[in-house]
Amino acid sequence: MEGGDKAPYFIIPFDERGSCVGPRAQEELIRQSADATDVYLFSHGWNNDWSGATSLYRRFVDEFLTVRKEYWPEPDRPYQPILAGAFWPSILLVDESEAAPTIAGANDGGDGTFSEFIPEVLALSATLPVDDRERFYELLSKPYVDREEALEIATIAYPHLDAVDTDLSESSGGPEQLAESWMQDEGAERTTRVGGYVGDSAPEMKPQAAGGGFLANLDVRGLLSKVRPRTIIRSLSVLTMKDRAGTVGANGVASLLARLAAESDNKARIHLVGHSYGCKVALSALCAPDDEHAVEVDSVLLLQPAVSCYCFADKNGIPGVPHPGGYHKALERSRLPVVCTFSNRDIPLSSLFHLAARRQSDLGEVKIAGAPPNRYAALGGYGPQGVAASDVIDARPAPRRYEEFSRTDVKVLGVKSHDLIRGHGDVSSPVTAWMLLEQVRR
């Protein structure tokens, strides 16, 4: 590794249910962690294969070691680190050309036909009963489906999705609400963007005068009565990976976290770092145990988290919901304030996440996420919402210190990173490495 440091480094793989498929590596990690002062546990996001995940970890660790060598070359406390990255099956498509995140909505150059999505449809159908698959394929091969057909698809798929949205700690509704969300997604997408997948470089939409442009020729009744299968496939892909991230975290990574804490007799400082849906992995691992078996970590760094901006909300902090956010417990299980970056240059999270990751239709008309965001907006797009013990600070490059990381009056800090994080994947940089170092040295 660059930076002049050496430390044990492990990749621990898990399957889609959270079972460890590298038990020897896990046991060796746990054994060596007994002598560590600091344990780093990283979790990658969606659409990373083995090569992509390990490359992400390597780049981030190299950036961190470089920053550490320059600004903390001689630690002022005992420091013997060990590093581990969780690997989980976060990709439905194996073809590189289709591996971009499908929290989506701009022209991908394709014709939108079923043939474009066959690999993704096959992956989605893998968990369906054999008797349902033929009808699932038949419906999704149509250019459009109506409300009844959308409900039929939702009825087939819904039992294989999680019944609870863990971000908001609420029921995810039912097939009817899932189908309705697709109809609304189609309407929202068509009034804002035309076509397929969107990337970080997508142009910002400009306001149009009422009655002009695309809206002037829009048949609203037709728009609300039909939906393209691509919208449904996109939504099911997002929800499948969202659920999988929570399952891997709550089952596999939670167990690993507990064993790491026990091996050091709770003396090692544990630092959780997640990116995108990897933040859901980390938060699920931290929050899954009951209070009696909870693990307290030293720090949590969430880089462009693809979870609800209300996931940490206090009781009654979510509009129209009496209970706290699904990850509110995380705020009590970290010694330092939870730190999460957010950036309006992260197009998937600032403009599109709230369209794809919804399961309730009780918000009525879907809007382009703005201020204030609706409760399905992403934490990585808007920062924490509904938390009294929270604050928002500006991102800063080294050597400008983050004295706020030592605050005891806040539980979560949103780091506004519009100028320094330029896209959803822009998280392996001196800027983010500096944030982690500022947590570790406290």
Secondary-structure map:
Elements: E1 9-13, H1 23-33, E2 38-43, H2 50-71, E3 81-87, H3 118-125, H4 130-140, E4 145-146, H5 147-157, E5 164-165, E6 170-171, H6 175-190, H7 220-225, E7 226-227, H8 229-263, E8 269-275, H9 278-287, E9 299-303, E10 338-342, H10 347-356, H11 379-382, E11 390-394, E12 412-416, H12 430-440
Structure report:
This protein has 442 residues and is an alpha/beta fold. It folds into two domains: 9-91 and 242-353 and 364-440, Alpha/Beta hydrolase fold, catalytic domain (Rossmann fold, 3-Layer(aba) Sandwich), CATH 3.40.50; 99-240, no CATH class. The protein has helices at 23-33, 50-71, 118-125, 130-140, 147-157, 175-190, 220-225, 229-263, 278-287, 347-356, 379-382, 430-440, and strands at residues 9-13, 38-43, 81-87, 145-146, 164-165, 170-171, 226-227, 269-275, 299-303, 338-342, 390-394, 412-416. The protein has an eight-stranded parallel beta sheet with strand order 1-3-2-8-9-10-12-11, with helices on both faces. α1 (23-33) packs across α8 and α5 crosses α6.
